[in-house]
Write a sequence for this structure.
C-alpha cells in the first residue's frame, strides 16, 4: 500500500510539473501558482463542507499552514527554473528535496532493511541522473539550477510538514484546504509586490484571454498537486517515511518521459541510465 500510494504521488507530481512548466512559458509563474492553487482551494473547500471535515480542526493544522507558507516560494522558484532551463534538467534536481523527509525519518528512528536502504541510494542516484544534469553552462543555466535547489529544499519541507498535518482522511481534506488557502494568500501577496515593482500578472500577448483559455490546464495542475500531497500524506502515515519519500520523488521520471513523448525532447544515455536506476531502486524499496 505504501508503494502504491507513493508511486501515485510520483505520477501526479510529475504530470503537474510538466503542465506547470508548459504554462509558465506563456504565463507569469506567480499567476500560474495563484490561479492553479485557487482552483484547488475552491474544490477542497466544497469537499470540506460536504464531508464535515471542518469538525477535525485542531493544533495540527499549523503544520498545514506552514506547508502552505513554504509551498508558494518553492513553486515560484521551480516554475521559473522550468521556464529557464530544460525540464529534463530542472525536474530531477528539484527532487533532491527528498533528503529532508528521509533525514527526518532517520532522525526519528526509522531504520529500513538492507534492500530498502540500498533502494534509497539507487533511486536517488537515478532521480538525479534521469535529467542528465548539466552543472556548467550559461548564466541562465546556473540561475535555473540555483532556483531549482531552493525549490527542492522547500518541496522537502512541505512533504515533512504535510505528513504531520492530519491522521485521518477527513482531517486530511481540511489540512489540504488550509494549505491551499495559505498558498493562495502568500502567492497573491508575492504577485501584488511583483506588479508594484513593475512585473506582470498577465501575459504580454493575449492578456486575460490567455488566462481564460488556460483554465483547464491550470485546474489540472492545481488539482494534481493537491491530490499528490494527499496521497503522499497517506503513504507517509502507512509506512516508513524514508520509503514513501523516495518513491514519491520518482516524479522527475514522469516529467522527463512526458517531455520526451509530448515535446520530443531527446533522451540522452545518462537520462536513460538514470531512469533505469530509478526503477531498480523502486523495486528494491517495494520489496523491502
Amino acid at each position: 500500500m505504501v508503494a502504491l500510494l507513493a508511486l501515485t504521488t510520483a505520477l501526479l507530481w510529475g504530470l503537474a510539473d510538466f503542465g506547470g512548466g508548459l504554462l509558465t512559458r506563456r504565463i507569469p509563474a506567480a499567476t500560474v501558482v495563484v490561479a492553479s492553487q485557487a482552483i484547488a482551494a475552491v474544490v477542497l473547500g466544497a469537499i470540506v463542507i460536504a464531508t464535515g471535515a471542518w469538525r477535525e480542526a485542531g493544533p495540527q493544522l499549523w503544520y498545514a499552514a506552514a506547508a502552505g507558507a513554504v509551498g508558494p516560494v518553492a513553486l515560484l522558484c521551480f516554475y521559473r527554473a522550468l521556464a529557464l532551463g530544460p525540464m529534463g534538467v530542472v525536474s530531477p534536481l528539484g527532487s533532491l528535496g527528498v533528503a529532508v523527509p528521509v533525514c527526518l525519518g532517520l532522525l526519528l528512528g526509522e531504520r529500513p532493511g538492507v534492500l530498502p536502504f540500498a533502494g534509497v541510494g539507487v533511486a536517488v542516484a537515478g532521480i538525479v541522473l534521469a535529467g542528465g544534469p548539466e552543472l556548467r553552462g550559461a548564466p541562465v543555466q546556473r540561475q535555473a539550477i540555483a532556483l531549482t535547489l531552493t525549490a527542492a529544499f522547500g518541496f522537502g519541507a512541505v512533504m515533512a510538514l504535510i505528513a504531520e498535518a492530519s491522521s485521518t482522511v477527513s482531517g486530511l481534506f481540511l489540512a489540504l484546504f488550509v494549505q491551499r488557502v495559505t498558498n493562495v494568500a502568500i502567492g497573491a501577496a508575492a504577485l501584488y509586490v511583483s506588479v508594484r515593482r513593475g512585473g506582470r500578472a498577465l501575459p504580454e500577448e493575449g492578456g486575460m484571454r490567455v488566462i481564460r483559455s488556460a483554465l483547464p490546464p491550470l485546474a489540472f495542475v492545481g488539482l494534481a498537486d493537491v491530490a499528490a500531497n494527499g496521497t503522499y500524506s497517506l503513504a507517509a502515515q502507512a509506512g516508513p517515511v524514508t520509503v514513501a519519500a523516495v518513491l514519491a520523488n520518482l516524479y522527475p521520471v514522469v516529467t522527463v518521459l512526458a517531455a520526451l513523448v509530448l515535446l520530443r525532447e531527446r533522451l540522452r544515455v545518462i537520462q536513460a541510465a538514470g531512469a533505469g536506476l530509478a526503477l531498480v531502486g523502486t523495486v528494491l524499496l517495494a520489496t523491502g
Observations:
- The first helix runs from residue 2 to 23.
